[in-house]
Amino acid sequence: xxxxxxxxxxxxxxxxxxxxxxxxxxxxxxxxxxxxxxxxxxxxxxxxxxxxxxxxxxxxxxxxxxxxxxxxxxxxxxxxxxxxxxxxxxxxxxxxxxxxxxxxxxxxxxxxxxxxxxxxxxxxxxxxxxxxxxxxxxxxxxxxxxxxxxxxxxxxxxxxxxxxxxxxxxxxxxxxxxxxxxxxxxxxxxxxxxxxxxxxxxxxxxxxxxxxxxxxxxxxxxxxxxxxxxxxxxxxxxxxxxxxxxxxxxxxxxxxxxxxxxxxxxxxxxxxxxxxxxxxxxxxxxxxxxxxxxxxxxxxxxxxxxxxxxxxxxxxxxxxxxxxxxxxxxxx
Amino acid sequence: xxxxxxxxxxxxxxxxxxxxxxxxxxxxxxxxxxxxxxxxxxxxxxxxxxxxxxxxxxxxxxxxxxxxxxxxxxxxxxxxxxxxxxxxxxxxxxxxxxxxxxxxxxxxxxxxxxx
Lengths: 332, 115
Fold this sequence. Notes:
The complex is a heterodimer. By secondary structure, chain A is of the alpha+beta class. Chain A folds into three domains: 2-140, no CATH class; 147-172 and 221-323, Pleckstrin-homology domain (PH domain)/Phosphotyrosine-binding domain (PTB) (PH-domain like), CATH 2.30.29; 174-217. Chain A has helices spanning 2-24, 47-71, 78-106, 121-140, 174-196, 202-218, 261-264, 303-319, and strands at residues 33-38, 40-45, 163-172, 222-228, 231-236, 243-247, 251-259, 268-272, 275-279, 283-290, 295-299. In chain A, strand 5 and strand 6 form a beta hairpin. Chain A is flat. Chain B has two domains: 11-80, Arc Repressor Mutant, subunit A, CATH 1.10.10.10; 81-115, no CATH class. Chain B is 55% helix and 11% strand. Chain B is built from five helices and three strands, in the order E-H-H-H-E-E-H-H. Chain B has helices at residues 13-26, 39-46, 50-62, 82-99, 104-113; strands at residues 2-6, 66-69, 73-76. Classes of the chains: A alpha+beta, B mainly alpha. The interface between A and B is medium-sized, with 25 and 23 residues.
């Protein structure tokens, strides 16, 4: 409830600032206004269009965020609350900051060509909106997520003392490999062609960028997931590097679920930290719920067994605190 | 692939690894045609030497359970041999019995009592 009310009030405050402030100082502004700077002011906009544009630039994200608050389930999870508050306040401060710096640059200038934007103003505005966003996200994150309700089915496995269990699974998506190889060949071929034809300077940068993108994409053609007493390790790409390691102590529980690329927005690494998906193919996925409230989804075969082992290891680690677990063998 | 090693098992490590893989295949987590994780990945996960894993894989190949192919790695070809699986389970049963203080003779007696 609170977030809807605060979100609405905050949105109106930002809206009022964007609409009323330029009107209040209209007499002291040139017509048109300088609204873009390169080396000095290089673009101007009529006062009314500028007013409409800046109001719309706030109305759209605000409407989307309020839509989430009214219809979505954003308030249920700590991670989504933090992102919602962070985005709402970060963008609000950003649009107000941009408006303020444009007004300040134009204030009391006879013509838009004379408007000067101080060098520091954009970094300050960006920094302020980042700080506001992070702070709002932190303050608005609310209580930690409730632990999973009892009775919900979580795969389990019985581990006996004196046993060591590990789980390992590898997944390769062959057509993603084909796409990565094909695009690398295209990049390489265009590199060779442009070298021979005396390419313009800009093309080298584009090719380096394309190579970097192709390398990054190739990381998501295959993954190896491994569960041991140390936790979960996910190795990416054909060389098994880099490796993402998640300690057992960070994981609350695990289960398997069916997810499709259409549900998460395509293939590869999807989502934001705290709610990410490593999607190589539709189907069985291993889902990890972090103690911090976030979640990680990994498309992998045999996920149910992996989740069962993970839950057993987490439970074993917990009961190690109490002297229930004696691994004394009478035959030793 | 879920692999379980018993730390109190007295058999050589490669036999234990072969047993663990045999059981994973008989559990149904891997069927004919499926590729096994690489020997290096398995060795890393189990925290043992890759040569030990390779030796275990070769044993299972000789048993007719696995197939080695150049460039395609190791894949499952058949179902686990019934007798090998029984021997494996019997081993585990004996280890479990000893853990509770029963000897081999006690276990044989229990088996004889079974109908």
